[in-house]
Amino acid sequence: MIEMDAEAFDALVTAELDLLPGDMVDGLENVVFVVEDRPDDGSLDLLGLYDGLALTERDRYGIGDLPDRIIVYREPHLHACDDLDELRDEVHTTLVHEIAHFYGIDDARLHELGWA
Question: What share of the chain is helix, strand, coil (3-state, %, to 5)?
Answer without folding.
Answer: 45, 15, 40
